[in-house]
Write a structure and sequence with these properties.
single chain; mainly beta; elongated
Length: 178
């Protein structure tokens, strides 16, 4: 897997006003909590590029790409494209919680009131992780594969969005089981 760099930056600081000073204090301490915490590795969608083999040619009879010797192209395995798996790692503050998740909004009411008891990870990351979390296909927390349970939400203090909170559950867990 290719490790993709990201834009997370933890820059403590404050300018003159009282609100900004308090924001700087909040940010300084929250950044230290996140930096001192764990990491979450997001699995991003694979990068797709054309086959780099100059001898790779499409064979319309077989609807596959072939190499110079007439067999399937060894480089792209007959697809004409190369997929490169990508991931990126963010510092995070995470905790495992056991809470009710409302499924009634989706019409998936497996229990009374549409609530399902489940173990989830609550993860707080830098605001720059928001777009990566939205497009990720999964993640790894403490060596465990997880999937996104709810849309991530931006959070911060005094109207400035500094962090992202997301909820994850075990990837191979069946919905509705505890």
């Amino acid at each position: 897997m290719v490790d993709v760099p990201n834009n997370q930056s933890f820059v403590p600081g404050a300018s003159g006003s009282i609100v900004t000073k308090r924001l700087g204090i909040f940010r300084k301490y929250m950044d230290s909590v996140i930096l001192g915490g764990n990491t979450i590795t997001l699995d991003l969608p694979a990068a797709v590029e054309d086959c780099p083999d100059p001898n790779c040619r499409f064979n319309p009879t077989y609807q596959r790409y072939q190499g110079a010797n007439g067999a399937l192209c060894y480089t792209c395995r007959g697809d004409g494209k190369i997929k490169t798996l990508r991931q990126t790692t963010y510092n995070c503050n995470r905790r495992a919680i056991n809470e009710d998740l409302a499924k009634s909004l989706t019409g998936n009411q497996n229990t009374e009131g549409g609530r399902i008891r489940t173990n989830v990870f609550r993860v707080k990351t830098h605001i720059s992780s928001y777009s990566d979390i939205l497009k990720c296909v999964g993640a790894t927390i403490d060596g465990q594969k997880v999937k996104l349970v709810q849309s991530p939400r931006k959070t911060g203090w005094d109207g400035e969005l500094l962090y992202v909170i997301s909820f994850w559950e075990e990837a191979n867990k069946l919905s509705g089981q505890s």
